[in-house]
From TrEMBL:
Residues 98-110 have a biased composition (Basic and acidic residues). GO terms for biological process: transmembrane transport. Residues 111-163 have a biased composition (Polar residues). Residues 87-163 are annotated as: Disordered. This is Gram-negative bacterial tonB protein. Residues 175-254 form the TonB C-terminal domain.
Length: 257
């Protein structure tokens, strides 16, 4: 590399300095090349030393730090505290106090106490009536908790009527109670049950063909309807009451909202 550099140098400067013959001598060529390039080397050194410092960004201290340094250098004896201005923050004035507020609060408290005393008097006056009402309700039997025998006796005491599918459907529509569990589960069913009607019109489930085709809560409602059913008499061709076995249909359909 060094020989190539010297060749490039002397090719450009052989005509000016007349030193083409020095290519054969290494030391002479190197010294001549160094001397010819010495001004350039000096200029580069000066540029790096001086111009780089001028172009480099100066890190100046912020104004706040300089001010703090100046304040620290000042002695306390030279400061006149009486002449130095004092910076005060703006303060909002407190809201005016209403003298009527404690009076209003006291009036409200007295009114509340009066209302409480009135309520206590009313409750004390009503307690014996409530006790009487509770004893009376305890003595009175609930209609829903009554056994089915009473309702069946009332239905059986009614005058007998001739059996027909229409009369049976009317009785079912009036007295059917949809099971709550079926309403929750949104279930429907058609129950077919075999019954026996005797000469007096009494209806019973046929024990030989007591087959139910739905869930148990539907079957319980069917048993209740048959136990509480009125007397339906079936007449023969001559017009006499007869004992008859029938297959009844009891539909359970969800109420349409």
């Amino acid at each position: 590399m060094l020989f190539e550099l010297t060749e490039i140098i002397f090719e450009n400067r052989n005509k000016l300095y007349g030193a083409y013959y020095l290519r054969k001598n290494y030391h002479k060529a190197l010294t001549i090349g160094f001397l010819t390039n010495l001004p350039l080397i000096l200029l580069l050194a000066l540029d790096v030393k001086f111009f780089s410092k001028s172009n480099s960004p100066t890190t100046s201290k912020p104004q706040g730090q300089e001010f703090m340094l100046q304040v620290q250098e000042v002695e306390l004896q030279d400061i006149n505290f009486e002449e130095t201005p004092i910076l005060l923050l703006p303060q909002t004035p407190p809201p005016p106090k209403n003298e009527t507020e404690p009076q209003k609060n006291s009036e409200k408290n007295t009114e509340n106490n009066q209302e409480i005393s009135v309520v206590e008097d009313i409750t004390q006056n009503k307690t014996p009536q409530n006790e009487k009402g509770s004893t009376s309700t305890e003595n009175k039997p609930n209609k829903d908790t009554l056994p089915n025998s009473t309702s069946s006796e009332s239905n059986h005491n009614e005058p007998a009527q001739t059996y027909s599918p229409d009369m049976w459907s009317v009785y079912v529509k009036k007295n059917l109670r949809y099971p709550p569990q079926a309403l929750r589960e949104r279930k429907e069913c058609n129950v077919f049950v075999a019954v026996v009607i005797d000469e007096t019109g009494k209806m019973e489930i046929d024990k030989e063909r007591a087959n139910f085709s739905c869930e148990e809560y539907f079957n319980e409602e069917v048993r209740r309807l048959i136990a509480n059913a009125p007397r339906f008499i079936v007449f023969d061709a001559s017009g006499k009451p007869q004992k008859k076995k029938l297959m009844l249909k009891i539909p359970f359909e969800l109420p349409k909202n």
